[in-house]
From TrEMBL:
One of its GO terms (biological process) is carboxylic acid biosynthetic process. This is Aminotransferase class IV. The keyword Transferase applies. GO terms for molecular function: transaminase activity.
């Protein structure tokens, strides 16, 4: 069977994975786009866990702050809804002039296994790898990509990014969560991290204690469980994390992790 890819670009449905951009397009030259990636539950944009409105608000707020042109929101929704019949994950990208690029993909390989057994991670300092405009999800995502590629070459599954003081910030693709003494913790947005939608959903729907704080090296030493989240993977715990000083072994099946996972249950 031939696998067909469907992409919407500027109102047109493309059969394939190639679109045309001017060599002078700011999206190509500077990564001047904003985007969001969402997991569509039960093929429905209005499913409570899809959080369609949150994803649109993320794009809308960035466009407003950047003083860009708004897309045709009705067209964006119609195109996204069409792609839900083919893909469980959508990425919606908006260019400065309001053009939209909407594409789909499958869930990550072995996601269920990673959610159950956990993954390995390595702590890597930002230094010159700081993400551009960290409060916005822009097309300039080179820094996290470089960090992820670096740790993967060393055999690790994910990069944990820090600032120059060694404070843990986020992973290359998501927000961090740590559990200690009956409470879940997540880094402060003011530290320069992305306000992830999965993070927002967890905070708004949790029936257990959550605190936002600065993740110092000493604080990390107190954590009994560590995980990361985003709208596609939901919750994936770590079982091993390599720092500059030592290797941390963490229980990926700590009972507290179920508290986070339960927020994403569909039934």
């Amino acid at each position: 069977m031939v696998r067909v890819s469907y992409v919407f670009f500027d109102g047109e449905l493309m059969d394939g994975d190639i679109v045309s951009l001017s060599v002078n397009d700011p999206g190509l030259l500077y990564g001047a786009t904003v985007f969001t990636t969402l997991r569509v539950y039960d093929g429905c944009l209005d499913h409570p866990l899809t959080n369609w409105d949150y994803h649109c608000d993320r794009i809308y707020n960035s466009i407003k702050i950047f003083d860009w042109e708004m897309p045709d929101w009705q067209r964006v929704r119609k195109e996204a809804q069409y792609l839900t019949t083919h893909y469980p994950v959508l990425r919606i990208t908006i260019f400065p002039d309001g053009r939209e690029l909407i594409l789909g993909r499958q869930l990550p390989d072995n996601l269920s296994q990673k959610q159950q057994a956990g993954i390995t991670g390595k702590v890597i300092k930002y230094d010159l790898n700081s993400r551009s405009l960290p409060l916005h999800k822009t097309g300039n995502y080179l820094a996290p990509l470089l960090c992820l590629n670096k740790v993967k070459k060393e055999g690790f599954g994910e990069a944990i990014l820090t600032d120059n003081n060694g404070h843990w910030l986020e992973t290359s693709i998501g927000n961090l969560w740590g559990y200690s003494s009956g409470c879940w913790f997540t880094p402060l947005l003011s530290e320069g991290i992305l306000p992830g939608i999965a993070r927002k959903v967890i905070i708004e729907n949790a029936n257990f204690p959550i605190q936002k704080n600065i993740w110092t090296v000493d604080f990390v030493e107190t954590l009994e469980a560590i995980a990361h989240s985003n709208s596609v993977i939901e919750i994936v715990p770590f079982h091993t994390i390599k720092t500059e000083e030592k290797t941390l072994k963490i229980d990926p099946q700590h009972p507290a992790i179920k508290l986070l996972k339960n927020i994403f249950k569909t039934g």
